[in-house]
Design a protein that fits this description.
Number of strands: 9
Strand content: 25-35%
Helix content: 40-55%
Shape: elongated
Radius of gyration: 18 Å
Order of helices and strands: EEEEEEHHHEHHEEHH
Structural class: alpha+beta
């Protein structure tokens, strides 16, 4: 039996609509979402400005900080790319973690990866050039979405990366001229993944490796076994 089997009774399938707020920063966490598909942006807010510090995608968890013992959300969690999730109420998860400590251990390992992601993003923002940061973000998004194409606008990219829209547009145009990406009607497709990775800063491999190690030790919840 998987260590996560006790959660299955309480998990409810939900649709994640673009722009939906799953958690507000510094507000009580009501639900924890185990992401099946789509992309959730974890945002930090300060002095009227908003910046993405990490992303949550396939096999990730939005609201995992509940495992640390606090009841307030660290980030504002916003759905960037629509998808699906398995949702559990905070009280049910806390009660099950108390009975099954290994569930907390799994979440803590995931949180360690998320912390590496956040700290590396902060370093990336002050040390690396725009095109390196953009290439890193696009590669990570593909990993979390388990795909090479997704809907996103230049405005969204500039907003979450804290960059000027014109600068993001220029960088994407260079990527497109090089055949790395293709843009069409709000859809962005990565066409030369390996070449794009080569343009990304070292933050990509650091973050990717952190999640890879966590996933290797973390059992996956099978959606087919969740009661509807």
């Amino acid at each position: 039996m998987s260590d996560l089997d006790p959660l299955r009774t309480f998990l409810q399938p939900v649709l994640l609509e673009k722009g939906a707020v799953l958690n507000e920063a510094n507000r009580p966490i009501e639900h924890i979402n185990f992401i099946e598909s789509g992309l959730v942006s974890l945002m930090t807010l300060a002095k009227g400005r908003t910046l993405e510090t990490a992303m949550v995608g396939h096999q990730g968890v939005a609201g995992a900080s509940i495992a640390l013992g606090g009841r307030l959300s660290i980030h504002k969690s916003v759905v960037l790319v629509p998808g699906t999730a398995l949702r559990i109420h905070r009280d049910e998860l806390l009660r099950t973690m108390a009975e099954r400590p290994k569930i907390r251990e799994h979440l803590l390992r995931y949180l360690q990866s998320l912390m590496i992601h956040s700290s590396q993003t902060a370093l990336c923002g002050v040390c690396h050039q725009l095109e390196q940061r953009l290439a890193c973000w696009l590669c990570l998004a593909c990993d979390f979405l388990d795909g090479e194409a997704f809907a996103i606008t230049h405005d969204h990219l500039s907003y979450i990366l804290g960059l000027r829209r014109a600068s993001v547009t220029e960088a994407l145009m260079r990527f497109e001229d090089l055949g790395l990406v293709r843009k069409a009607r709000g859809l962005l497709e990565v066409r030369e993944r390996q070449s794009l990775e080569q343009r990304a800063c070292g933050c990509y491999s650091t973050i990717s490796n952190a999640y890879g190690k966590a996933a290797a030790r973390q059992p996956e919840i099978d959606p087919e076994s969740v009661a509807l």
